[in-house]
Amino acid sequence: xxxxxxxxxxxxxxxxxxxxxxxxxxxxxxxxxxxxxxxxxxxxxxxxxxxxxxxxxxxxxxxxxxxxxxxxxxxxxxxxxxxxxxxxxxxxxxxxxxxxxxxxxxxxxxxxxxxxxxxxxxxxxxxxxxxxxxxxxxxxxxxxxxxxxxxxxxxxxxxxxxxxxxxxxxxxxxxxxxxxxxxxxxxxxxxxxxxxxxxxxxxxxxxxxxxxxxxxxxxxxxxxxxxxxxxxxxxxxxxxxxxxxxxxxxxxxxxxxxxxxxxxxxxxxxxxxxxxxxxxxxxxxxxxxxxxxxxxxxxxxxxxxxx
Length: 307
Fold this sequence. Notes:
Elements: H1 5-17, H2 27-38, E1 50-56, E2 59-65, E3 73-79, H3 93-103, E4 106-110, H4 122-136, E5 143-153, H5 155-170, E6 177-181, H6 192-196, H7 205-215, E7 240-248, H8 252-264, E8 269-278, H9 289-305
Parallel strand pairs: 3-4, 3-5, 5-6, 6-7, 7-8
Antiparallel strand pairs: 1-2, 2-4
């Protein structure tokens, strides 16, 4: 399928802006550049009932309650993307507002520690700790601990999958659903999608090689399932999943392979493929019509799963 014309315009606008790849600048500059780059395709902030900045222990979180919210709503722990190196609560504020309103759930966005200052397992453990905090403080945030989902985009999808594995292995909490948006699942740069989309579509092969180098503390981490869920030997007894992929994305094949493995292990899996879109399209709903439809459909699936 050809590249979506609106997605092509986004790529052309970003090319004109001339942002250097993350590997060519410091993490601090890369973080500022991500904020500026996302502003090129702004998502108009939707009104929600409330937004509160809290701390889950020492971890900053931002809690969104939907405009149509009632007491004891389902909860979604959301982990932002950015290769474990960039991104924060503000870069994904628009996405969290949209998901809260459309899925009618409390969204807890987690500001986990970033690499390389905090390498693996820092981010994964922060996300797991924040998930436990949300369950233990469900009354504070007016959420229903019995209807819990985890989700995230890109590296955030990796962290959501890791938290689901941790919860299964450690015996708590009970997670009903995982929303994995073009997730990173393993450090394999030899797939067809890496070959076909190595350059020119926003997230490059070189970017991902750089991000993995920043995140992993040792070569042994490459096979740790909490760092690379796609390398997990046992994927049984995991939450129902929605896995979303983009056709012009280096991560497409590993995410779709992960979906197939989850299904083969006996889990309920929905795979939503968007062959004309590029990595990061959930943050492009203000510029790409298909991105907006994809987010709406994902929220509808989440709402149904947690009903």
